[in-house]
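Lesson 9: reading folded outputs for more than one chain in a single document. The general rule is that every protein is listed as its sequence immediately followed by its structure tokens, and records are never interleaved. Here is the first one.
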Amino acid sequence: MQDPGSEEAVGVVDEVDLARAQEYSLLSALLLRSPDAQMLGRLAHLRGDGSPLGLAHTALGEAAARTDAKSAAREHFTLFVGLGRGELLPYASFYLTGFLHGRPLANLRQALQRIGVERVVGQAEPEDHAAIVLEVMAGLAGGVIPAPAGIDREIFDHHLAPWIARFFTDLEKSASADFYARVGTLGRTFMGIETQAFLLPR
């Protein structure tokens, strides 16, 4: 999938939707793999205003400034991989049913098939992994994935809203997390904003 921030990928996209796409893309990238030194360096410059989202950006930037790639990788491994399994299981099926590869995954696959999103060859994670659903939302918001109006709301309402805030809250509160606790705060805050925005009439 193309980077939602690339000029080729984005046609005429509302500035708010482009900002949403970048937020989704950042969260997706950080959940899928730990940041390298270059990414941590970029994140260290994050600053925000006094809004909840702005404060979450500032906290993530400060955490990135005091974290090195090795520490971030260790956190990511402990939280999401582990010896056998990680501390957290960032899958819709697990959060909604207590099991992996459940009905939520099947439902999501059907929804993605309807809009022409196919599983990437070699992708080990099932589609209901938080990072993958967030990447899809980035593509929809940024115009990379062409879809009828309202599909982003449908994907969010049915495949993220029922569980993603709980996941980010668990990440935020994890005793194993420092840098990733701030990722949890950012995710929880942004998901709250999206939830409220999708309630507004369009």
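And here is the second record, again sequence then tokens.
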Amino acid sequence: MEQNKPIISFRNADIINGEATVIYNLNMDVMSGDFVYIVGKVGTGKTSIIRTIIAENPLVKGEGEACGFQLNGIKDREIPYLRRRMGVVFQDFQLLMDRSVEDNLSFVLRATGWKNEDEMSKRISSVLEAVGMQRKAHKMPHQLSGGEQQRIAIARSLLNDPEVIIADEPTGNLDNETADGIMKLLTGINKDKGTAIVMVTHNRQIFEKYPGRVMVCKDENCIEQNEEDAIDLELTI
């Protein structure tokens, strides 16, 4: 990625959900090292932005780029290469329940072109250590708490040393104390590695406690909130 070039960029982009436009004229840049929240009530298009970034939803109007790939008219064969350059963390973890933590991670490495067993083993150990889960490699997902499963999901997102982590409500299914641990982990990755984070949340406590840039989705728009402005949203406290 070129110096001072956005990792993610939208210009006058309409964001769709199915056939309906949920956000008009989105303008957004995410730079290396940024921590960007996308906030708003349910149904305001937050997750649709995420789906557009990972090329799950098409971009049919305006311009968009992510990790060097043009989102307008991106070809199906290009999408796996786009997603290798970003990490994605979901609210519901999306771990494979029939295999161990280690096998979950090795599955992703194999799917993204890794072949050397020693290198894969070292990489798995490295990302598990980064999230404080190095002793859980041989556990099955059902043997882990929700917070532990989300830490494994974050480890999975780090496997290919992404330029950006896309996190869709990563604390949504967790209690406050566990969510706090996940936020400390994500903000630590952001600070220590310079990995950009784009995080969808509806929890005001989170983005007030862990400051970052805030994009507010409201009335079919998504606009960055200035620090001095109060965020006028009825969000979860």
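What the second record shows: Strands lie at 8-17, 20-30, 35-40, 63-66, 69-70, 86-89, 164-168, 196-201, 213-218, 221-225.
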